[in-house]
Amino acid sequence: MLRKGKKIAVEAALSVVRRRCQIIYGQC
């Protein structure tokens, strides 16, 4: 359960970083 939550958190963080990268650089 903890592992699954960690994976979800990591995926969420990556999606946020990707979105920020798209906004700043236009593409990632």
TrEMBL record:
<protein>
    <submittedName>
        <fullName>Uncharacterized protein</fullName>
    </submittedName>
</protein>
